[in-house]
Design a protein that fits this description.
The structure holds two protein chains of two kinds.
Chain A: H1 13-27, E1 33-36, E2 50-53, E3 58-60, H2 61-78, H3 90-99, E4 104-107, E5 112-115, H4 125-142, E6 148-151, H5 153-166, E7 170-174, H6 178-181, H7 189-201, E8 204-207, H8 210-220, E9 227-229, E10 254-259, H9 268-281, E11 285-290, H10 296-305, E12 312-316, H11 320-329, E13 332-335, H12 344-351, E14 356-359, E15 372-374, H13 379-391, H14 393-409, H15 412-428
Parallel strand pairs in A: 1-2, 6-7, 7-8, 8-9, 10-11, 10-13, 11-12, 13-14, 14-15
Antiparallel strand pairs in A: 3-5, 4-5
Helix pairs in contact in A: 1-15, 4-5, 5-7, 9-13
Chain B: E1 3-10, H1 33-62, E2 68-72, H2 74-83, H3 85-96, E3 100-102, H4 112-115, H5 117-135, E4 141-143, H6 151-159, E5 164-168, H7 171-174, E6 184-185, E7 192-196, H8 198-205, H9 220-228, E8 236-242, E9 246-247, E10 250-251, H10 256-268, E11 274-275, H11 278-284, E12 290-291, H12 313-323, H13 326-332, H14 335-343, H15 348-351, H16 373-422
Helix pairs in contact in B: 1-2, 1-3, 1-10, 2-3, 9-10, 12-16, 13-14
Classes of the chains: A alpha/beta, B alpha/beta.
């Protein structure tokens, strides 16, 4: 399995999903080697998963030069600009590698290189991704395996590279797509192309929702028969019950929560517009925007413009314990995403007995029927739903009652079972590989 | 000589328009006329008009040997008048043949029988007047909303002058007894009870086009053989169903119209069988036994109870709130307020809030304007809030008037007293 995040090394949503899926698979007896771009030695792997750190893999100079062509072919094809640019000579390439001290060093004794891959989504992400893919080939050669399972575009090139050596089938697990993350005009064409190439190359695709499956079909032109839907779930282990006072509520005051990256994809601006509309009718409500992202400043300005600064709170980035404290304090959780492949946080909120308002443009709305659903752009309707929930305790009661039942049914074990079924059909099947 | 007794239910609710918190106190317009008119016209074209014509032809063809009964809600009649007058006319033509009986029900197709006896009686009378006015027909048999029934409802219906009540032939009240006889409610003095044969009714209403059914396809030969098999063991076979079965629930393409065109002829080939209206059935046959039903039953879902309309938090909250206004609404003596309140009692509003099968994705889908029961609740609550605010405003205005009127004579009196004192 190839992944870009795994807690405690980067605990984003993708990392948590990868962790929980892997854990459930292992419980069913699946043997998983989880390849990460990096895993700093000061961190402790608390899971049962065997983690393989790509940055610790030793590669000889000859191998390095031989293999770089395979990745180069792809990058060349899409014109992606990295140091693997087709126009540089081999000598120049090695020179460049060595010049960037951070990411490689040469070990005299073994006459081999170690590439230090930095996975922090920095400006050199594409290069990191290609180096990671490059290493994946070596790993696939050394480690015995029946299947290659990759998570999102950062690792799909690695999967394709691995398949070249091991000839094992490739599953591309789609947690998010570039077309979710950005508006059409702001699409990162390199990422889109890697996704498209990966989706075409993969033997099977797992989509986290029917919503995502449709996006893969519509935006990437992929054959629907190849795509299997396996919904995410939520881990029922709460980290803490500490009385963490992130926010204070006045007597009788209600708290409406937005939580997530403050970016275009998550729709925090729609949350703010709806907040202003709710506040016109009901002053005893506090709106909290928890998370960080490139839209923060714009939102703070807009809050001032709407003159609701005293009712809207920005918390910045929160750790896990703080997130849970906030869920405990919240009366409504709103997820107004413009495009949400799944949205595990909605299930988390329900776990804390918080009624949820979901964007209709989300995968979780296929799982959590006991919620209110709204088109992300319809801020009037969002305000309507928030106000109605605050005003009518019967509505909250009924939603929570239904959601509790759905949460019982939503288990990672069920997701894992579906994945294993797919594994088995692939292994038994007569798929032909590249 | 068993009777075949057909009764068809005709009802269309007045659906509410999308009404948000921003409409509260700004607009008192609650109804979705566009949707209601579209649905009425669609159902008229697919079901009411073609099926009425088929029934009219059958009545003419069989010269008094083919008979049926209808129950048409007041809200359905109101909407026919507005959106499909030709439908109302065609029902009138049917009634004029003398082979069609009309049944009594609540005008607003409400659950008032469960929540308010006074309102229940008012709606029964309002519907009775409507039938008299529109069809010049006096209803004698009562069928309650969704065949909701218990001993108390039977008692009230008899007290309102009905000779018999119709309900579901469920084992819950029948036990081992057969639905194919006339009975008597334990709570009635003389009124009788007619029970739906749900097996034979649902063969037509629900299973007719179900390809997974082992009796599919159903033809008149097969169906009449089932009916014939009851000869000697039945006095009345009560086939009760929604009228929208014909052309709506079962599309024209399923062959349902052709089936109904041939069925009477087929059944009448057997000399023992005849078609009778509910009124004829209760004249023809004595009650076989008493039936007790202390608990509420209905014809809905597999549970045959009221769980489609009440029992979850949002349904109970809505029902409690709307029925709690009854006295205050009538105290205003304002017809607009009274009629608006009554139309908010229509059972469909609460049906849309049903969460019973919701998680299975199997919602009560038929012409349901809402995606989720929660949406239905939010919309209803918003309308309710506006309505309640109007009621409060009206009460305040009336109180002012009353004070003003009360003041005047009293001030005059004091003057008189003063004068008297001076004298």
């Amino acid at each position: 399995m190839y992944g870009w995040e795994f807690p405690p090394f980067i605990s984003g949503g993708l990392g948590i999903a990868c962790h929980d899926i892997t854990k459930a698979l292992i419980e069913f007896g699946v043997e998983v080697n989880f390849v990460l771009p990096n895993f700093p030695s000061n961190l402790e792997n608390k899971s049962q998963v065997n983690i393989i750190n790509s940055s610790k893999i030793k590669v000889t100079r000859t191998d390095l030069l031989e293999r770089k062509n395979s990745i180069k072919e792809f990058l060349n094809f899409y014109g992606i600009d990295t140091i693997l640019s087709p126009y540089i000579t081999e000598h120049e390439y090695l020179e460049k590698l060595e010049a960037i001290k951070d990411f490689s060093y040469f070990e005299e004794s073994t006459n081999s290189y170690q590439l230090n891959i930095n996975s922090n989504y920095g400006p050199n992400l594409l290069e990191e991704v290609s180096r990671y893919a490059f290493i994946a080939g070596f790993i696939a050669q050394k480690l015995e395996h029946d299947l290659i399972h990759v998570h999102d575009w950062m690792t799909v090139l690695a999967g394709i590279e691995a398949r070249k050596f091991s000839k094992k089938p490739l599953i591309y697990h789609v947690h998010a797509l570039e077309t979710d993350r950005s508006d059409k005009s702001a699409l990162n064409i390199n990422v889109f192309n890697i996704e498209k190439y990966g989706l075409e190359q993969a033997d099977k695709i797992i989509a986290v929702s029917y919503y995502t499956k449709n996006k893969i079909i519509e935006n990437y032109g992929i054959n629907p028969d190849k795509i299997h839907v396996v919904h995410n779930s939520v881990s029922k282990e709460k980290v803490t019950t500490l009385n963490n006072k992130i926010v204070t509520k006045k007597d009788g005051e209600k708290l409406v929560l937005f939580l997530g990256r403050v970016t275009y994809q998550k729709g925090p601006d729609y949350f703010l517009e709806a907040a202003a509309k709710v506040l016109q009718l009901d002053k005893n409500v506090q709106f909290v925007i928890a998370g960080h992202g490139d839209m923060i400043n714009k939102l703070i300005e807009r809050t001032a413009e709407l003159k609701i600064g005293n009712k809207v709170r920005f918390t910045g980035f929160l750790n896990r314990a703080e997130v849970e404290a906030l869920f405990q304090a919240a009366d409504i959780y709103v997820m107004p995403s413009v495009s949400e492949p799944f949205g595990i946080s909605g299930l988390e909120a329900a776990l804390f007995d918080v009624p949820v308002i979901l964007s209709k443009q989300s995968g979780i709305s296929e799982v959590l029927h006991n919620s209110l659903m709204v088109d992300f752009w319809d801020t009037n309707e969002l305000a309507n739903q928030i106000s109605s929930l605050l005003k009518n305790p019967a509505l909250e009661k009924q939603i929570l009652l239904g959601a509790a039942k759905e949460l019982q049914e939503s288990q990672w074990a069920n997701s894992a079972r579906k994945i294993i079924e797919l594994y088995e059909t692939i292994i038994k099947g007569t798929l032909k590989y590249a | 000589m068993p009777s075949i007794c057909f009764y068809f239910q005709v009802h269309q609710p007045k659906r509410l328009r999308k009404y948000t918190i921003f409409d509260i106190n700004n607009s008192h317009h609650y109804e979705d006329e566009t949707a209601n008119s579209q649905i009425m016209q669609k159902v008229a074209n697919k079901c009411y008009l073609p099926m009425n014509q088929i029934l009219l032809d059958l009545i003419h063809k069989h010269q008094g040997h083919f008979k049926i009964a209808f129950s048409i809600s007041g809200v359905a009649i109101e909407q026919m008048k507005l959106y499909s007058p030709e439908t109302l006319e065609s029902f009138k033509r049917l009634v004029k043949t003398g082979c069609v009986e009309l049944l009594g029900e609540t005008y607003y197709h409400s659950l008032s029988a469960v929540f308010s006896e006074t309102e229940f009686r008012r709606q029964i009378r309002k519907h009775k007047e409507l039938m008299l006015h529109e069809f010049n027909y006096e209803t004698k048999i009562f069928r309650n909303t969704e065949l909701i029934y218990n001993d108390n409802i039977a008692r009230i219906a008899e007290d309102e002058g009905f000779q018999a009540i119709i309900t579901e032939g469920t084992e819950k009240i029948l036990g081992w007894k057969s639905p194919n006889f006339v009975y008597k409610p334990v709570s009635a003095k003389n009124a009788k009870l007619l029970l739906k044969n749900y097996s034979l009714s649902d063969d037509i209403a629900f299973r007719f086009s179900n390809q997974a059914w082992n009796e599919f396809p159903l033809n008149t030969e097969k169906y009449s053989s089932w009916i014939y098999s009851l000869d000697g063991n039945a006095e009345t076979i009560n086939l009760f169903m929604d009228y929208e079965t014909f052309g709506e629930h079962q599309w024209q393409e399923t062959g349902i119209f052709e089936f109904m065109k041939v069925l009477p002829e087929r059944i009448l080939q057997h000399p023992s069988f005849s078609f009778n209206t509910p009124s004829e059935v209760i004249q023809k046959y004595e009650a076989k036994d008493f039936i007790a039903s202390p608990n509420l039953i209905s014809w809905a879902d597999t549970e045959r109870d009221l769980s489609a309309w009440m029992g979850n938090h949002i349904q109970d909250d809505s029902l409690e709130k709307i029925y709690s206004l009854e006295k205050r609404v009538y105290n205003t003596q304002n017809n607009n307020i009274i009629e608006t309140w009554e139309s908010l009692l229509t059972s469909d509003h609460f049906y849309y809030m049903c969460t019973k099968y919701f998680s299975d994705g199997d919602v009560h889908k038929y012409f349901n304007p809402y995606n989720t029961p929660y949406e239905a609740y939010i919309n209803y609550q918003n309308v309710f809030t506006d309505f309640e605010n109007r009621l409060i405003a009206l009460e305040k205005a009336n109180l002012k008037k009353a004070k003003f009127i009360a003041k005047k004579p009293s001030s005059l009196n004091t003057k008189k007293v003063l004068k008297l004192e001076k004298v």
